[in-house]
Design goal:
Helix content: over 70%
Number of strands: 3
Strand order of the largest sheet: 1-3-2
Distance between the termini: 100 Å
Mean pLDDT: 86
Low-confidence stretches: 1-16, 411-415
Order of helices and strands: HHHHHHHHHHHHHHHHEHHEEH
Structural class: mainly alpha
Largest sheet: 3 strands, antiparallel
Radius of gyration: 31 Å
């Protein structure tokens, strides 16, 4: 007798506060690739232990090729044998479901097979299996759960096109009849925010992180403290001072856990309260935390640059002129260091000020917005007038040509 497929609550992507095992492994692999010296040996031992425990033969082979390790034939053969045995059991389960059970049990068997390929690190076969599973799935919510699995697969392999494709499919399913699911919609916001953050769209990521503060349930993706860390890091770069105060500094959800995250409170409050010595001391420590995160590491230079510019610009807003020595004292750095820093940012057009090297003074040169708008309007007006004049001249020439052509045609008749 066939059992009708019933849409279950969205629990297939992690219960409680346990991060997805593959994403934990992805962080371990990141640490392995970044490790040096004695840390490298420890990271390698930890990763190999996880791979062997899970019999991840395809991942083991790929990692040996990437890192230049010698393949241990006996170990690889053992893992492959375990894979074949588990796959045979899954195939038997699916066949039994087709013959004796219903569509729901068949779908569950196909999903288990897909997750098996995910676990052992065979991306191509996992994608093929997920495609078969989705075709066997009727309920919209369960289709979304399949795409969440695919999305996490893309995150594990840092496959940007795959992640983008999965996010688009989930949005399409959410907009389809029967797809209005607030729990999955809120979960998608966090996934998309992490995706945007990892692709350096801090503004878009901050918006989605902030919208998810009171509805966060994506523990399979990251812990709540990590989620708050990402929220603060993206927001402090993307938001202006007033908005940062309202949405982050005073947010109850942030305040409940931020003190448990090292250096984050002094950096955030130091910047907002204009305590730049406190800010800089904490900022240097937070950079190390950013470097150790696999989503943020590649953007650590961007983060360093943008936050330093924000701090310098905020300090200079209060002054028409200030000595380099006083500004260096406020930031707890040397005058020479600050001179080199500001010179680079001024030359790049990121700070509106000038340095008087003789007097050792910084003079702010705030842009005249009204005058710039006036000049822009005049420039666009001139371009418009030029185009109108060219169009008018072209029309006159065309009319004259047409008239002369008419006279030439009439002249034989006139004769």
């Amino acid at each position: 007798m066939e059992v009708e497929e019933v849409e279950a609550p969205s629990t297939s992507v992690g219960e409680g506060e346990q991060q997805d095992a593959q994403l934990q492994l992805a962080h371990a692999l990141f640490r392995l690739r970044e490790a040096t010296g004695s840390d490298l040996a420890d990271a390698k031992a930890g990763v190999l232990s996880t791979i062997e425990a899970g019999a991840m033969a395809p991942l083991y082979e790929a990692l040996c090729t990437e890192c230049g390790w010698m393949v241990e034939d006996a170990k690889l053969a053992g893992m492959k044998a375990a894979n074949e045995k588990e796959l045979a059991a899954l195939e038997a389960r699916i066949e039994d479901a087709k013959e004796n059970l219903g569509e729901s049990e068949v779908r569950e068997g196909l999903l288990a097979k897909s997750l098996f390929f995910v676990k052992i690190g065979d991306k191509a076969k996992a994608l093929e299996a997920f495609e078969v599973t989705e075709k066997q799935t009727v309920a919209v919510g369960l289709k979304m759960d399949v795409q969440f699995h695919v999305l996490r697969l893309g995150m594990f392999h840092s496959d940007v096109p795959l992640m983008k494709q999965s996010i688009a499919k989930i949005k399409e399913l959410l907009a389809s009849p029967g797809g209005a699911d607030w729990e999955r919609k809120n979960r998608l916001k966090v996934y998309e925010a992490v995706f945007l953050m990892s692709n350096r769209d801090f503004s878009g990521a901050a918006k989605l992180f902030l919208e998810s503060l009171s509805t966060f349930t994506s523990y399979e993706l990251c812990s709540y403290s990590t989620f708050i860390f990402y929220t603060v890091i993206t927001s402090i770069v993307a938001l202006d001072r007033v908005t940062l105060k309202a949405k982050v500094v005073d947010a109850p959800e942030v305040l409940t856990v931020i003190d448990a995250i090292p250096n984050l409170t002094p950096m955030l409050n130091g910047l907002h309260e204009c305590d730049y010595t406190r800010f800089f001391a904490a900022f240097s420590q937070v950079i190390d935390q950013v470097k150790s995160d696999r989503h943020l590491s590649v953007h650590h230079r961007y983060f360093m640059r943008e936050l330093r510019i924000k701090a310098y610009a905020q300090f200079l807003e209060s002054y028409k002129s200030v000595t380099l020595q006083n500004m260096a004292l406020a930031f707890g750095v040397s005058s020479d260091f600050l001179d080199a820093e500001l010179s680079n940012f001024i030359a790049g057009g990121r700070l509106n000020c000038k340095i008087d090297k003789v007097e050792g003074v910084l003079a702010t040169t705030r842009p005249d917005v009204k005058n710039a708008l006036y000049m822009d309007t005049v420039k666009k007006g001139d371009l418009l007038l030029n185009r109108v004049q060219k169009l008018a001249a072209s029309s006159i020439i065309d009319a004259s040509t047409h008239e002369n052509h008419g006279h030439q045609k009439d002249s034989p008749l006139d004769k």
